[in-house]
# Entry
Amino acid sequence: MLLRQPSRSLFGTVALCDVDQPVAKESDDNRKTYATALHDSQVELVKFQKHVIENDQKVLVILEGRDAAGKDGAAKRIAEHLSPRETRIVALGTPSLRDQKSWYFQRYVEHLPVSGEIVLFNRSWYNRAGVERVMGFCSDEQCEQFMVSVPLFEQLLVHCGFKMIKYYLDISSDEQRRRLESRRKDPLRQWKLSPVDAEAHKLWKQYSEARNEMFARTHSVFAPWIIVKADDKRAARLNIIRDLLSRCDYHGKERHPELPDPNLIFLYDELAVRNGVIAE
# Structure
């Protein structure tokens, strides 16, 4: 019987072969390892939320990335066991005619967290620097105005007491192609498909160029970009939670918590783009 080479992930080796029992056992072990690690991190998230509520903090987490990068799943795992009254996932649709006539940031401002809340933006005002720019939904003048304005806007939020953490989920071209194809074939996930998705992979280079300029012009000391290598969805979700917890102080925090993997999640640096660490 021929065996294929095993593949490796953060949670061990998964053998791909035709032998039933050994593969099932190994796969079960990997799932248990991930489930345990995720559970432990989610317990810490519950402690963190209690601290946020008791201290009237305002926490904003921004999740950005290409289509099919895993933003939905990451937001879901963060919010899964948090109080729904003090946790919101914001995923805005296409701007209305009124939105298009408003100050660009206006429709996002009404969704910002109030005291005691954690809000997760599944895509954010950075649509203007990415999909709107590449797909021609905004003018060059509007995009330039955004690039100049957003650092000032974010500095104002931080100055006014918001805890803001920005994540960019980075996937490879091959992985995006595979995930988009999987969506097209899965009747339970076809709701995720849109005309923009159909163009996403064809415009890979244009999205890369727009992303690189976005990083260069909107990465700052008060609102830095944190890059997440996201080809492995489970590793990405776990490392986002661990990184989020590592950046926040809260009562009852584990003294020796599991730290995020610096090879999978790290602060943006232009060298990461030049060296191909961030997908080209």
About this structure: Residues 1-9, 12-24 have pLDDT under 50 and may be disordered. The chain has eleven helices and eight strands. The CA atoms of residues 95 and 107 lie 9 Å apart.
